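Appendix B. Chain record.
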Amino acid sequence: MHQLHGSISWSDVVSPARELALNGFSTSPYLAHLASANWEKVSLNPELKALLTSPSEPGSPIKAGEIFKNVKLAETLTTIMAEGTNALYKGAIGAALVADLAEGGGIITTDDLASYEVKLDDERSDELATLALRTKAAQACTFVQDALTP
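Structure tokens predicted for this chain:
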């Protein structure tokens, strides 16, 4: 999609997210609440627990106002900035994703990622309350509509 319609460099698209992941941002009260309320489940996944652990109180959930960083995400985005989407679809990031999914019972393979092709639909427009949502991907409209419909 970026190759067809992007007007700024891929690096410029990804860079702000990379900087937030690397340098962090203030944890919102909502994220702190979710981490705390679900701490028992979070603690079952060592990587997620490490991500959501308070920097000031190791072993406890992150608190509102503490700096939330995701260095692994920053590293991933750095690779994507350098290698483009091939890092995911045909490279080490994709291989690591497939391995991680397999540990959880997933069935996606590296061949699935390597053979993935974006299919562009005709533009679709949906009305959501007072909003008009226009996209090239009908699936995105359906997902958003389902998410917003009570």
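Further analysis of this model is presented in Appendix C.
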